[in-house]
Structures are given as structure tokens and as C-alpha cells.
Amino acid sequence: MRKILLSAAVASCMLPTLVSAAEEGTWYLNPAIGQYFFDGSRDLTSTEVALFGAEYVLSKDWGVELRGLYSVAASDRNIKALDQKILGSSVDMLRYFSTDSKFTPYLAGGMGVIEADYDNGRYDSQTQLNAGGGVRYTIDDQWSVRGDARMVYGTDHETQDGNVSIGLSYNFGGSPAPAPTPMPVSNDSDADGVEDGIDQCPGTPAGVAVDAKGCALDKDGDGVPNYRDKCPNTPAGRQVDKFGCKFVLKHTESIKLEINFPNNSDAIPVAYSVELKKVADFMSKFGGIKAVVEGHADSNGAAAYNKQLSQRRADAVRNALIRDYNIAENRLSAVGYGEERPIADNKTADGRRANRRVIAVMQAEVAE
């Protein structure tokens, strides 16, 4: 027991010294259960063991752990009097091998004391050296699973024990290392950290991450930089649009409504019912389009009157599409321009007839 207490005291003195080597780090609490295997000279059977460790991460490569264990071992000669309580402690150094996955392998080695306390009050203790390793699997920011295996050499009686364990670890404290600050460079007009002489993409927007050539990063390699890419995981080789999304070929379909009215009339001639139906069918097929129905008049009569007349003509066409063909009201508006926009000479009958008109042009983009 004295050796165990001495070992714990030494560990408590060593740990702050080792910890001070790093300004920041993470603590792991490592409870575990496993199996302990005894040297044949001990007359003890392998048995379950409980372990607990306090691990401190010094850096991405190194850590230190204070570890204790407890077990009750039975005599392999089935003699009750020889059953032993096993207590131990050690201070171990850990060498991590970081990977890009959730698995972190490590090697471990250290020194400690183990004591076997017999039921009859006798005890035996010895100094031990251990070496082995394991792997940690990260579950989330706080929790991980750790598997560990050690060979243990007793220096006092030259025994060779071993143990394996698995446990659920909890981490706390520590903080991520700050992102490196780019070193200022001379002659860097866009301040991206790449000198103008080798910058292949001058004028990169401020704050955009760039590669060694000074060009904005493009994660999916589609030619659209990350800061403009609205579809950042486009499969390789796919044609994309300016936003980095799947390119869709489109064409425009259009239809023109044109109705000519009799002189001084806003009544739609029956002959134009087919024209109205074509326009209504087009608007029903492409539900997203809207249209402005424009009314016009010739120059006969007062300009103010012609303005009103052209408005009535536009309203008549709009109302017919709404009433007779169920086109939603909010998709159509009407405006009268009177005699302001002639398309023919008002001095002739044919010219005036052409100017007495209602028109509307509708367009829709269609994906091929």
C-alpha cells in the first residue's frame, strides 16, 4: 500500500509538470472494464478488472495518463485463502497517430506499482513497467470509445502479466487551435495572401479562400468557386450553370394576341374568338406567365375620348379571358394608350383600321 500511495504522489507531482508543457488541451476521463492475465508463477487465474484513467492531451501527438485498476483474483489451485485483491496505479505516456477518420490509434508506455492483498492480511507489492497501445473511436464532441491492451513487466519478481480493456471516455476542456493568420505579402493587390507576380486570379473578392495560385477554391471542381456555388456537391463532369447547379437547356415560346376593332367600338368581333382561345390555352399551359393587354385607337375624334375608348377595348379583352376562359385576374392587366402609339398612317382607312387594335405578347421559358 505504501508503494501505491508513493506512486500516486509521484504521479500527482508529475502531471502538472507535463501539463504545463501545453497551454491548452483536452482532458479525458477513461473508465473501462477488461480482463487481467497473470504470470504462471503467481498461481492466479485470469480475472475481470476495472480501470479508471485521467488522460491529458498535450498536443496532437502526445498525451499523459494517470491510471488505476482494481480486481479480485482467485487462486488457480482453488484455495480460498489465496484469493487476492489487486490494486494498481501507473503514470503513462501516450503517442497518438492522428488520422482523417474517427479512429485515433496510439502507443502507450509507463511505470507504476501493483499490490496483491491476501484475505489473511498479507500483501505483496512490486514495481511494474507497461507497454502497449490501443485505439480511440470518436462518437461526438464529448464521447468516445477506447480499446486498450498492455503487457506488464514486474521488476521485483520478473513477472509478465497483461491486460486488455474497453471503455467509454468523456472529454472536456481544451479549445481548438486558432486558424493561422496569413502572413502579409508585398505587392498583393487583392490581399489574398498570394503575390501579384504569381497570382493567376487577380481581383479575388476580399475574404474568399484561395489556393496557392490565388484562385478561389472550387470544392467540386465544376468551374464555379465555392463562394458563388449554390450546388457545392455537383458530380464530376456534369455541365453546370453560372451558379454551379445542373445546367438545363431552355428555349422561349411566345404567342401574340392582336384584335382589331370596328370604328368607335369596344365590342370584340366574333371572328377573333379563335385568337382568344389560343391565348387562353397558352396561359393555361404556362401558369407562371403574366401579360399586359394594351388598347390602342386611331386619331379620329378627341384624344381624351380615344384614350378612354382604348382602355375599354383593353378591358374588354382582359375580361373575356377571365370570364370565358378562367384565366386568373392577377395574371392580366389592361392599359389604354389611345392614339399615342400608331403603327400605321391614320390618313388612310387601312391605316386607321390597323391602329384600332388590342395587343399582348406573352413569353415562357421551357426546359428541354
From TrEMBL:
Record keyword Signal present: yes
Membrane topology: Multi-pass membrane protein
Signal sequence bounds: 1-21
Subcellular location: Cell outer membrane
Record key words, sorted: Cell outer membrane, Ion transport, Membrane, Porin, Signal, Transmembrane, Transmembrane beta strand, Transport
Domain called OmpA-like: residue spans: 248-366
Pfam families reported for this sequence: OMP_b-brl, OmpA, TSP_3
Main location: membrane
The protein's name in its UniProt record: OmpA family protein
Annotated organism of origin: Zhongshania guokunii
